[in-house]
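Practice problem. Given the sequence and the SMILES for NAP, write out the predicted structure.
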Amino acid sequence: MSDDLIFDSPFILGMMRLNERPEFDDADRFGDWLESRVERGLHWFDHADSYGNHEGEKRFGEALARRPGLKSRVRVVTKGDIVLPSRDRSPFGVKHYDTSERYLTSVIDGSLSRLGVERLDHFLLHRPDPLMDAEATARALDDAIDAGKVGAVGISNFLPEQWRRLQATMHHRLGVHQLELSLAHPDALFDGFYDAILADGLAPMAWSPLGGGSVFEDVLGTALSRLAEQLNSTTAGLALAWLRRLPGSPVPVIGTLNERRIDNLLLSSNLEIDRPTWFALLEEARSHRVP
Ligand SMILES: NC(=O)c1ccc[n+]([C@@H]2O[C@H](COP(=O)([O-])OP(=O)(O)OC[C@H]3O[C@@H](n4cnc5c(N)ncnc54)[C@H](OP(=O)(O)O)[C@@H]3O)[C@@H](O)[C@H]2O)c1
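Answer key:
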């Protein structure tokens, strides 16, 4: 992967909830928000065409259009292949996945146009499609890289055999894997899944690194806040430090758009934890002793 595609910030800002924030209907207001984040070194943003049924990408593009100077400073990841029920033209109106060559080409063009950027730095297949014709999918993805529309292609939520079937027919290397990983969902660390990602040279990105907010609850939430106080950090900061301690240092894709919470996460992004702390947190998360 070329240097400009490496995640050079402590976390990525996830845009899944952007369309849920009415104040960001105002493109200028969201433009201000974007500018402040980029000025703090947070220039990587994670999208999907399905977030808000295209609305997330659209809002981002409209804000960038008001701040032309930002365009060359932001880096975007986006995902596609999910067809929402409202976009299915069949009589079924069914949510499904589409990795056909024609569909993926139109998805990439659509995201480029809505985001208003020259290139999608990373384009990921959002969900594995049981009907994937690997050769056709590979052709669409390789062609998008060759045409300069996409910097690198990756996958999300794919099992090893699924991404290997795709990789075997591609000319370019898959770059990243975006997986669900957090103290609230640590299973990938114990079933060989995370090891397969590293062994195949994929850069790991962790979605919902705070478990969508669930790490703050119950026994785990209490343990995190007690330890965070001892370490002079914050609960959320400690939960991300737990992830970064892993080999391959997965880059967290956080979901909050709250400026104070993002600033706090940035302040605690240098926190390093030792092995006993890492395992003590794991025990609390799984509510049983390390075997
Ligand atoms: N590839 C995939 O299939 C996939 C699936 C899901 C998500 N994603 C990506 O992952 C991103 C993050 O997902 P997520 O929103 O579930 O992630 P998250 O960062 O694990 O959770 C965010 C939630 O935690 C809450 N929260 C409570 N206290 C917080 C604190 N002190 N600091 C930060 N957050 C706090 C936030 O509330 P407030 O919003 O009120 O601050 C928000 O509801 C998405 O935006 C999307 O880009 C990818």
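Check your answer against the key. DSSP finds ten helices and ten strands in the chain.
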